[in-house]
Amino acid sequence: MAKIVISSGKRKTAIARAIIRPGKGRVFINNIPLEIYPIEMARWKILEPLLLAGDDIRNSVDIHVNVRGGGVMAQADAARIAIARGLVELTKNEELKKLFLEYDKTMLSGDPRQAEPKKFARYSARRRWQKSYR
Questions:
Q1: Neighbours of 93 (CB within 10 A)
Q2: Rounded mean pLDDT of 19-46?
Q3: pLDDT tens digits for 75-89?
């Protein structure tokens, strides 16, 4: 397993690029080790595909993820998708792919939902001015 895999993941406006190469099991998100990543919920979200893959895969690869755009959880979801896609591509294991899809379909396929754009003469996409008839 001496090859390098580059994969990407998107969620809302967040885009993540993951570089997976043989190593000792280190994971970096924007050059920050995953163990000290500041947001705990995001940390667990990013860790999901690695926990599902098992110790033998997790301890044999180094993962560097670069994430830009979006909010904290959108970035975590994008990183999670990039890592899961990269692991499936690296191992070429149908069992792993099936496991990821069974656990959560969006781990490999992504989520197409986007925020609705704001309309003119309104506060937001749907909200209108209040009316009073008294």
A1: 14
A2: 94
A3: 999 999 999 999 999
Q: What is the pTM (predicted TM-score) of this model?
A: 0.88
Those residues with Cβ within 8 angstroms of residue 98's Cβ, 6 or more apart along the chain or in another chain: none
| 88-107 pLDDT per residue, tens | 999 999 999 999 999 999 99
Longest pairwise C-alpha distance within the chain: 75
For residue 95, the tally of other CB atoms under 10 A from its CB is 8
Domains of the chain: 5-109 (3.30.230.10)
Total number of residues shown for the chain: 134
Q: Which of 97, 133, 107, 89 is nearest to 48 (CA)?
A: 107
Q: What is the mean pLDDT of residues 49-64?
A: 94
Residue 57 dihedral angles phi and psi, to the nearest 5°: -75, -45
Cα–Cα distance between 5 and 19 in angstroms, integer? 6
- Which SS3 state, helix, strand or coil, does residue 22 take? strand
User: Whole-angstrom Cα distance, residue 14 to residue 72?
Assistant: 9
Cβ atoms 105, 51 nearer than 8 A: no
